[in-house]
Design goal:
The protein is α/β, with parallel strands linked by helices. It has two domains: 77 residues, Chemotaxis Receptor Methyltransferase Cher, domain 1; 188 residues, 3-Layer(aba) Sandwich (Rossmann fold), CATH 3.40.50. A seven-stranded mixed sheet has the order 6-2-1-7-8-10-9. It has a three-stranded antiparallel sheet with strand order 3-5-4. A hairpin with a 4-residue loop joins β4 and β5. α2 packs parallel to α4, α3 crosses α5 and α6 packs across α7. The longest helix has 20 residues.
């Protein structure tokens, strides 16, 4: 999830001249974005918010931001708040993004996890903030390339995102042909044609993944532990206290010895630093209660 500076479509300058965006309007929107999604909209993002949400006003046929704020805060505002989130955030993602994390997965984490799964153990990976799906599918491709029988064991991937619209795209798993270039050639067998200029995800990787909506700043209706969590380029849009709480919550969800991979400009800071040690570029391993790394392999329960 990211907030890039938008371009201004032809003719939109004139529309901006006619529609007022007051400090009070911005405060309502920023407060809702923080309350509902943890999105930290500072005053520096005011122009971005204005430009992005003008499109929502046009779609809804509203004449000013005061009416839009009334809709957002009204009794039926939930759907529009979700639409606001989609308008304000751009889900920038591609297959095998930040390949060093997948190298860590292949060479360090997965050999032990595969052994655990073969012995009957429970293995869980979580793609938190999965966007349009390339991240969890990349995880599944990596697992299947090393362990083709994974779906017959208790090894699964949870993929979550706060945006219901982007989750629909992730579950559909249909992508432009150009995006296949990011998939290693040996793993392209896990994709299938989906019409002119498109491809989709084969059934084998789909069988490993469960998609679901989850807001990282709310209660999590999931149970751990997880051995691997990917949450990349999401926390950077939270304020520092929210980030600090998030790292601690991930730590609580990880098995001792489990791995947390975060975005290239993110760092685990605050009290959660005591829960982790750095093991690579923006990759961390969960420590045990003694502040030492624990073995990732666990004996399967009898």
């Amino acid at each position: 999830m990211s907030l890039p500076l938008p371009s201004t479509p032809l003719g939109e300058d004139r529309l901006q001249d006619r529609i007022k965006f007051t400090d009070a309007d911005f405060k309502v929107i920023a407060d809702l974005a923080m309350r509902d999604f943890g999105l930290n909209l500072t005053s520096a993002k005011r122009d971005l918010v204005y430009s992005r949400l003008l499109k929502r006003l046009r779609i809804l046929g509203l004449e000013d931001f005061r009416d839009y704020c009334a809709l957002l805060t009204g009794p039926n505002g939930t759907d529009e708040r979700n639409a606001m989130l989609s308008a304000l955030t751009t889900n920038v993602t591609h297959f095998f993004r930040e390949e060093h994390h997948f190298k860590l997965l292949r060479e360090v984490a997965l050999p032990g996890l595969i052994k655990l799964a073969k012995e009957g153990g429970r293995v869980r990976l979580w793609s938190a903030g999965c966007s349009a799906g390339p991240e969890p599918y990349s995880l599944a491709f990596t697992i299947l390339s090393m362990f083709p029988e994974a779906a017959r064991t208790n090894l699964r991937i949870l993929a979550t995102d706060v945006d219901p619209e982007i989750l629909k795209k992730a579950e559909a798993g249909i992508y432009p042909e150009d995006e296949r270039k990011g998939i290693p050639e040996a793993m392209r067998r896990f994709t299938e044609p989906a019409g002119p200029g498109k491809f989709t995800i084969a059934q084998a990787p789909r069988d490993l993944i469960t998609f679901g909506r989850l807001n990282l700043i709310e209660e999590w209706p999931i149970s751990g532990p997880f051995q691997v969590i990917f949450c990349r380029n999401v926390a950077i849009y939270f304020d520092k206290p929210t980030q600090s709480r998030l790292w601690g919550r991930f730590g609580d969800m990880l098995s001792p010895g489990g791995y947390l991979c975060i975005g290239h400009s993110e760092r685990v800071l605050g009290p959660a630093e005591q829960m982790f040690k750095a093991v690579g570029i923006t990759a961390y391993q969960r420590l045990n209660g003694n502040g030492r790394s624990a073995q990732l392999i666990e004996e399967p329960k009898k």
